[in-house]
Every structure is written in C-alpha cells, then in structure tokens.
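User: Round two. Same drill as before: sequence, then structure, for each protein.

Assistant: Same drill it is. First protein:
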Amino acid sequence: MSQTTSPSRRTFLASTAVAAAAVGGVPLLSACSSEGGGNRNEGTTTKKDAAKILPTYVASKVVEPDIPGENGSRPGFTGKAEPYDALPASVPEKMGRGGEIAIMSPLWGTPPKKDCAYYRAVDEAIGVKVDWQTQDGNTYGEKLGAVLASSGIPDMVVIPSWEMQGKIPSAIDSRFADLGPYLSGDEVKKYPNLAAIPTAAWQMSIFGGKLKGLPIPAGAVDIIIPYYRQDVFEDKGWEVPTSPQEFTDLAKEITAPKSKVWACEDMKWTAFNVFGVLPEKPYCWQWQGEKLVHRIETDNYLEALEWTRKLYAAGVVHPDARTGQGDAGTRFTAGQSMITNDGNAKWYGWTFEQSEQNPGFRVQGMDIFGHDGGDPQLYFANPAGIWAFINRKASEETVQECLAIANFAAAPYGTKENRLVRYGVEGTHHTLKDGVPTKTGQGVTEVQDTYFFTASAEAVAAFPDHPQVVRDWCGWQQRMGAFMKKPLLYGMQVREPNRWANLSDQFEDLENDVVRGRKKVSDVQKAVEDWRRAGGDDLRDWYRKLIEDAGESAA
C-alpha cells in the first residue's frame, strides 16, 4: 500500500499495521448495559476479569535477539541469516491432522495460484491444507460485511481494527468461537508460539468478555516517526531541531522553492506527539483533576493544529501536501522535502529502495521533543490491530486445525517455520546471498502476506541486509520509549454505544482544513461545543463510569 500525502487515519492504520506485521464467559462492567435495551456487550472487560481468561505467557527462548527490547522497544536482530537447514525449529512435530481450512483474509497484491508451490510447502509443513479466500485489502471492508451477514462464513476470518465499524463488532460477538477453552491459562502451552505472544496483545483479543481473536502483536513504540534526510543534513551542516521554534527556524532555512526544495511534508502527526495529544478513541480521555476530558477539548490539541498551520503559512511545507496530490514518501526520497512523518516500516523500506540508485541515501528518525523544548509526553501504541477469528460453528477438530496453522505462523524470527512462511522454500522461492534471504521471481509471485494473518510472533526489527537500520530504529524506540506512558483503558477493547459511534468523525477533515488555512482554530472550538451538545457530554459520563469501574479513577 502506498502512503499518500495527508492520509486518513483509516488508511494510515492499514498501511502501518500491515507493513509492520510483515517485518517480522466473563462478566462485563456495569457500564456495559444501557437503558432501553442497549447492546449487552457495550463497554469493556475489566483487567481483573480479563486475567481469568488470558493465556499464560511463556517467552520463546528459541532465538535470542542481538538488541534486547528496552522501554517497550522492539528486540533487534542485526546478524546474517543462517541457511534453512541450520535454523532451529519451534514446531518439532506436525500439529495438523490433514484437514482443510478455508481462510478469508485481505491481500495487498496479486493472489498466487491456489495450488502454487509455496502454499503446498507450507501446508505440508503444518499438516493442514488451506483454501485461501483472499480479498483486495483496499476494499476488504465491503466484502467482509457481506460475508459476515451470510450463512457461508469461512472457518477463519481476518479482521483488522480499522474495519471494525458498523455491524462488524456485533458479528464478532455472534459469529465467532470462544477460544478460551483452548487457550486460556495453561491450555495455551500446547501451542508454544501462541504462548509467546505478549499478554497485552491477548488482552486486546478479548471481545464481549470472551477470548476470540488470534492477534498480530504490534510494537509498543510503533508510533509515527518524524524522518529526516540524514545524508543531506550532514552534507549541509543542518542541526536536528530540539524544539518547535528550532524546527520552524530550520524549516525556513531549508526551504528553497526556486530549487524545488521544501523543508517538510504535512507534520500534523508529529505535532500531535510534540504537543502530547492523546491517541484516538477509545484511549482519547484523560483526567484533569476530577474532570474527564476528551483529546479534542485539550489545549494541546489546539496548539498542535496551530503549530502545523503556521508551518503551512510560512511556506515551508511542500505545496503538493496542501492539495493532497502525489506521494509524500516519493518527494522525500527524491530530495524535494527533507522531513516527513510516516510509519516505522518506511525506515527499512526507503533504505532498501534507495540502496542501489542512491547508495549515499540515509534516513534517520528525529527524536521527538516536547512543546517547550523539554521532554515529550508520548503514549504507547496499541498492542495489536489485526486478528483472525474462528467460525463459531466450527467443530473441535476444525478449531484445533486452525490453531495449528496459527501456532506455525507465529513462529519467532530465526526459526525454520518463520523462514518458510516469510520467504518460502530455499532454492525455489528464495536464495541466501551473503546471509540475506532474497526472493526469486517465483518467490515474488507466490510468497504473499497470507499465513502471518492467522497469528504472528512478537514484533521485532530484523534486516540482515541493512543492520544499521536495525540499530538506528531500535535506538530511536528505546529513547522514545523512555517518555511513554499508557493512556486510560490502554490495551482494552471498548465497545461504544452505537448512538455515539460516529460522534467525532468530522474532526479529521476539520483538522486538515485548519492546518491548511481553509478554516480557523476557532472553528474547531465551535465544533467541540457542538460535539458536547450532540452527545459528547453523555459519552463522557459513559466513559467516566467505564474508567472508574476499571480502577483508573482520578488521583
């Protein structure tokens, strides 16, 4: 998926979650019911109740990282990859029993033939034949809704967080199996790779009080990164800014329209981090004394928009960003803009892309500074954002076959299973050149992102062809992780009442209009007042009850 200028939050979530993943009966809270016959699964499951159904965590010791995780950062692997035969196995014996499982998942690419050599090899290793029913990831939500409303639901269905809108959440409640009897507590130990998935990712897999999803874990520090052209900065002698004012001053120095060079792209995403703006719903609330306040009601939110607006007004933002034309990443790598913000996967992606045509190209992550030039206030990223679900009508044998697939797919980096899933058969789908797995033409065609959608191992950084990217990325995450905290209700699935589900939808377009100068900050303030009258204050009361029952009351 390409990353365009000023992406919507939905598009951004999709692009970053998929790219990052490729790198490697419980009582509910009292607030879960409402007068007048509200959905019985509105609300969330308390951490106390979640603890009763979460799988036991057993860390994988099959392969140790070169750079251990710190402050929530991803573990890093910088060494050369070993030949397949020299790799350890995380699934010593076949767990599949020869069944056939139909799986529906998104795919951003051309689907390989169903009987291709890659599918045959992985299915043989797992002991289960998979009938892949892949759908175009860009229009996946449309197909998903139709399938879940039908009687022909596949054995497994992949649902990303950005598609959990409309009737999808209620379909998860009614259409998919409770995996607690198979995975809760020590039961998960039958599936060692699933047991090694971080507990926070499993907690986000609790829907309607039951353990239903098989997660793809995300890195805790996988937040928007402000990238800059390190090679050009060093060549020009530019100092990396450490405050909003320094950023603005440098941006004016860099910008040279006659030379078709501008300082930056749209920096709204970074501005939100610089000014300590809360994440998206449901983690968009904070206590100010005894008052519960939404992100859009904070001074931080308005100040972030105002700072971004001033960058546009100063003419330091690439003009195509204002109109939403072209691709910000392409302009960045071409040297038309020197600073941009994007998902973590671009660190390696741009480096790999430019390695042959521009060997001197180097990208670096700018340390995020606070609004006053001091330490920033950052928030940990969601522990998971994509899940696989198993059909509620599936037999016990079918559920076990699905879990065998997921356990194989969740093999950690550096194992035989991980190599097979990610690169296919050595000699057929990839070769090992100087310790770097390189796909053959057949590998490019057949080895697509499919199996890892059924479950995935802990998120890591591992690029044997560009180990410096691993060092830089892990170092950046370690530094930024030191300034991170958990927002209220962190890592908990929250179902808002349907009557308020779309209450804040207009704010993204309004934000973009404000920073581009088409509307004023005062228009945002008016929209907030309208939001309060339209249900925002009622939603606040609902969340207050939810948060207090979760034990996260004001200090």
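Second protein:
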Amino acid sequence: MVDQPGAGVYPEYWEADVVLRDGGTAHLRPISPEDADALQAFHTAQSETSIYMRFFSFKSRLSSKELRRFTEVDHKDRVAFVITIGGEIVGVGRYDRFDDPTEAEVAFNISDVQQGRGIGSILLEHLAAAARENGIRRFTAEVLPENRKMLRVFADAGYELVRKFDDGVVSVEFNIDPTAKSLAVMESREHRAEARSVRDLLAPSSIAVVGASRRWGTVGHQLLEHILEGGFTGAVYAVNPEAFELAGMKSFARIADVPGPVQLAIIAVPYEEVPKVVDECGVAGVKGLVVATAGYADDGERGLRKQRELVRQARSYGMRVIGPESLGIVNTNPEVSLNASMAPSLPRRGGLGLFSQSAAIGVSVYAAASRRGLGLSSFLSAGNRADISGNDVMQFWEDDPDTVAVGLYLESIGNPRKFSRLARRLSRSKPVIVAKSDVTGLRLPPGHVVRTTLAPVAALDAMMRQAGVIAVETIEQLMDVAQIVSSQPLPKGPALAVYSNSAAFGKVVADNAAPHGLVVDRIVTDVDLDAGMSASREGLRRSLRTNLADDSVHAVVAAMVPSRSLTMEAIAGVLAECAAEAGKPVVAAFTGILDTSVQLDGLLSPNVESGPSLPCYSSAGSAVAALAAVVRYAKWLDRDQGMFVEPAGCDREGTREHIERLLSSVPGEQLLRLDDGESAALLSRYGIPVVPSAVFESDDDAVAAAERLGWPVVLKTTDPALRHRLDLGGVRLDIEDADSLRRNIAQMRRALEPYGSSAIEVQAMVSVGQACTFRAIEDPLLGPVVSFGLAGDAVNLLDDWAHRVPPLSSTDLHDFIRAPRASLKLFGYEGLPAVDVAALEDLGARLVRLKDEHPEIALVEFNPVLAGTRGAKILAAEVWIGNAAQRTDSARRAMLG
C-alpha cells in the first residue's frame, strides 16, 4: 500500500506502466497534491474547445480551490489517475462517488496533442478496476453531444450503455463489472498495442548505434558492422564522442546531433554511462532501445536497482527496452534486412521466429538454428528481459505474415497467466515451441519484483499443455521440432511408415516409436540403394509415392544408411520431393553421420525461397521424438476445443457481497478460515452443496442431530489427519438408530484416545462411491489453479494430481477429470460400476468458475468427494478467504516491471 501525504492510501499496483495504441509507453498513477502545478500546466496548454468539452464552459486557469479539489482525493470515494510521458501529464481520469455508494460519476481530459493514442480507454479500464475494488458497480458520465471522441471511448469499451439526452447533454450510464465483450475489447487493444511496439523495434525506419567503436572485436564495432553488412534498408547513424568517422560514415558526438529522426537506438556504452544515454535518447525522441551493455546481473542488488531505473527512465519517455545484456535483434524480411546482433551475418530467410532470454543462451539458440541451416523470420534476444518479454513478442508473431512457427527459450515466465492466454491463442494458428530451464516460471529475471509460487511445478507444465504449447527440455530439442513445423505440413494422425535399407535399423526405429505414442503402420525395408544412382532413386521415389498416397499413413520416418550408389544428399532430395507432392511430413535420420545438419547446410534446410526442404537428424531417436511432439500438437489443434463452461445457478454478485461482508473485519494480508456453516453457505451460491454435518458434545446432542439430518448416519472425528481413516477408527459408517449411535460414539472415543482428544461430528450417510478430492488455490504468479485427484494414497503418496489454470473449456474439463493415472477407477475397475463422471465434471466446472471469478478465495478443498453411480457428494469442504492479491493478468492493462 502507498500512503499519500495529504490524501488517502492506495494499493501499490494502481501505479503502472502502460502501452499505448501506437506502441509507445506511458506511466499511469494516482494523482497527488504535488501535481497541482503540473495539472495547471496541463490545463493551460489545452485548447479552448477541449476545456469547454470537459467543463461545459471555458476557463483559462484552474482556481486554487479547483486545484485542491482535483489533486486531493481519498482514493476511495474520489479517485483520479494521471498518465504521464516524460514527466508531463498528458491525461486525467477521475470518478466521484454519488450518495448511492454503488454509483460514481466519471470524467476525462486528454491532452490535445496526445489524442488518438488510446489514453482515454486505458484510464477508463483502470478507473473501473479501482472503482470495483471500492464497491462501486456503475459509472455515469455527462458528455456534450459534439464530444464524439469521448462518447466513442464509452461505446467501444464493451460495456452495455444506457444513453439519455436531456437539456443539451448526453448522459451515459453503464455497469462496470467485466463482461465477455469488455474483456475481449481490452484483450484486442492490448494485442494491437503490444504487437505494434515490438514491430517498431524489429522494423525501425532508422537506427543509431550509441557506443559504436573503431576497435575491432568490441560490441559497438561489431553491431555497427553487422547492421551495415546485413544491408539494413533504413538510415544508420554512428554515435561516439571520440570518433569523427566510423565504418566509412560520419560519427556524431551525441544522439542529439544526429540530423534525422532516430526510431531505434542500440546502446553499447560502458555500464555507468547507460543512464545518461537513455535520458539523451528520450529527449531526442527515440522510440525504442536495444541495450547490449552487460554488468547488471553481475552487480548484485546495485545492478538490480540500476536495471529497474533503466526501465523506469525509458518508459517515462515512451520508449520500450530490449535487454539489458541483449545479444541483439534480427529481421530477415528483405524490406528491413536487419542484423543488429552479434551474429556475423544475416541468417537465411525462413518462417521460424526465435526468442531467447540471457545473452549466453541467446548465442546457443542462434548457433543451433544456424548450424541446422534453419531459416528465420526474426530473432530477439531479451537478455535480462527487463521490459520486452516473450509475451510481447508472441503478440507480434501472431500477426506477422513472415512467421509460420515460433520457438522460445525461457528461463522464467514473469506473467504465466497472460502467457497461457496468449500462447493458447497463438497456438491455434502457429506452433509454439518452448524450451525451459529447470526453474522456468518459478522465479523472475533480474530486476523484477520477487514473487513466489504456491502451485506445484506440474501446474505450470499442465498450463503449457492446456495452451497447446510444444514443451521441450533443451535447445537441441527445440530445434528438432522447429525443423519439422517450419517446413512440413502437420500430420493428420500418429500412423507411420518406417523406411530403411536395414531391417535391423528399421525395427529399432519402430520399437522407439511406440513409447512416444506413434503407431507403426508398416516397415519398408526392401529399399535397394546399390542398384545404381538412377535405379535406386527411381525405386525409392516409386515406393514413397505409393505409401504416402495411402490414407492409413500419416507420416514417414526414413532411417537410411547411405551407400556409394546413393548418397545422403540424393536420398534426401527424393524424400523432400515426395513429401512436398503428398503434403505429408517426412523426416530423415542418417546413421553414421556425426553432424548431419552441418553437412546438409544450404541444401535441405527450411527456406521459404528454396523450394522443398527436409528435416534431417543424425539420430533416429531425435527424429522420432520430434515427430511425436508434432503429432501431439496436431491432435490438440484438430480436436474440438469446446466452449468455455458457464454452469447455471452461479451468483457472482451475491458471492462478492458475501465475501466482502466476511472480510470486513479481517485486517491486511490475514487469511480467514470459514467455519462449516459459512463454507456451505458461500459454496451454495455457485450450486455446490455440501452434505451437512454437526459437531456435538453429548450423546443426546448427537442423537438430536441425527434425527435432524436423517438416518442412517456416519460418525467422523474432526482431526484432519484421521477424519478420512476408517482403518484407524476415525470414521464409523451406516449407523441406523439412536442406540447404535450411542454405542459407536463410546467405541470411537476409546479408539481415538491414543491420538489425543478431538471433537466428533455426525453426518448423513450417503451412497458408497469412489473417494475423490478437488483443490483450488490463488497462486501469486499463475492466478487461480485447480487440482483434481483420487483421494487417499494416489494423491498423498504418489502425487497423482491433475492441475489446470482457469478458465476451462468443456474439452479442458473432460481432460481434467481423466488426467490422473488413477482415474481409470472412475470408469469401472475390477468389476466395480463406473461412477457418474458427468457429475464430477459439473462440480469441477462450478469450482473453476468460483475460483476464477473470486481471487479473494485463497483456498478451497473438497475432501472427500464421493462419486457414485448417480451424482457426486462433497462430505467435507475447507474454505479460506483473504484480501485478494493483484493477479498478474487482470481487468486492467499494465506492463510487468
């Protein structure tokens, strides 16, 4: 929380950097009393028309009383946000609560010179989010009819508007709870803005290399040389105060001396000089930075502070940052032809987009792609990823016509919830391959606010599978898969034809395919490669065409031992030709070749300009594993993704009010565990019933409770370690009358004596079934995470959980319940009847929606849930609530930093 002197207190996350419609950045924050002079300057710079539109009259200056009123707010009943660029206010948005505490009036004022950049829409999003946190549910605004821009901001926001015209003024009213339409509008705006910001970095009209050097081998020298030799189509400027001429061109002492506008600055100056250069770039109107300078990660806490300051500086001027410690960027589109990287030459043009964190790994990623001759569309090394992230680049790649597949090496995921949303959308049109380090997603890169995760590592892996991501473990595996998806059609199924001129080799390949989920339809070993060049090629071609034309064959793995008559290049040429004709994927493995990709470089690698290509591997195992990963992706892509599930009977607004009432007496970060009655009442608002129970003190109380609940009943200890343990005396079943109940109470108390005293409860007996468990948590990084498993040893000893990140589609829910290994017991096991799986899916859908819509719910656990042949009953529910942490992907646009 931030305590503002002379005003109120507001959450720290209300302050944020934002991306504008044109890709530039700005800073949004609550207004403060110290803004009085800046607000007056903003007002006096406005045109008469703009002032009239805002105040319905012209006033050349704001009075002292007005300045106090506008800048001194309590951040509850009266909230105001300003957006600044370069420290100057360029937009103001505010709300004032009415007598009805659920309604507020909203007003905006946007700088004349900044209009059209989406500032009003961003202010509305943040005001609406703040208002909802303060219990406001409805906004009203009075707008002059001629103020079409402001009316359009409201109309385009995705809310359901009610308009009234009275006395020459348009009154607009709308509910500010997020709707599917308003969230879709925000997502679309975010996508366009972030894609534009990355596009401007990768396709600049002009570049200045700040720190360009004559000295061979220095970063500045190589960057300038590579840009020039790569044939960059825009203007290039060298900036170095100690050189008059560099690379045959005039050198400028400062970026301010450059005669033309500079869109992108490449910074390669010493560590201590970076802040000064960033300020100079901002003043000069530079739009983006690539910071190659190293030292931040090696300078401990001081380096982290300097990195955060670097990003703050850049964003305050509207600039985005790649790096620091970036290897650079590449764009092979001939209209750009940009090699602003440490790579010695512009790579071959192709359809693969690559992103990497850390300079060291960036070198490995680039080298691996180059070694295999993979054609690239673009490459971005984020270095320490202080600003531009994989999420930003995915936004760009989604619209980029040059990119057909993407690969990312990630050491961390700063915003996994947003990553899941973007990756799922991108994967529907382009394969997304992610290689992750051992700590991916569970930490943040240098310079970011440290957060921890509560969810198991498996939840992140499940999120990737759910999003259609092809997850791999190493850079080499990433390239193995990239070779296929960037050059071959997707397989229509898992059936293979294995080709080999060695029966033993073909059998080994076939045996290796089965564990990967591939089905070997046929093994073709009658391939004679010693019949002479012409005859061998024709025989191979004829056989391939026949088998590829068969609908029962979806792909071919060719594992060949080249002969003197037919070389590796000749074999590969036939394979590539037949694959292109059939429109089915073909991959090759050549035994005895230590480094197949190098020997094939320039001949068979994916290249949009060189016709058919063929993925080649030195190991048949690598070829099979890569093809299997692509088959799984194709299956995910081909299946019906289903609709996002919204079960009937869910009272979102009533639940919100219920939680607010419960939390009204809970201070700060404290969590509140609800008692059984409150838990049941809260869950019932989402159509989730809990079988009632009653804790008792005396035998007479137990009998009275049993009469009320209905016979037969169950006795259970409230001890969390024993309440599910029938074998240890913690549960007694099927008690049919008062006498039997009294006897069982006495016996249970004796049985539990060795474990210490604990309360006992009585509960209505339900039909027998399979015991299951559901759990949902609010994770600081992933947001809501739901888990499902079969209760008992499966989850307690074997960790046999399924995890998912909401929202879930009907297909996701179907897979969720079937994901645990022990889920076979749900469908009839050892003669037992199958359970009502549809009831489990419905319960899962309701829990998912409850958790997704209410981050204040910190934990929900149902254990056990008895799934019978008809229905599923919750026997025990645990619910914890607390003041919600801000999710990393919420109903307000903000940049991570």
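The first strand starts at residue 2 and ends at 3.

User: Perfect.
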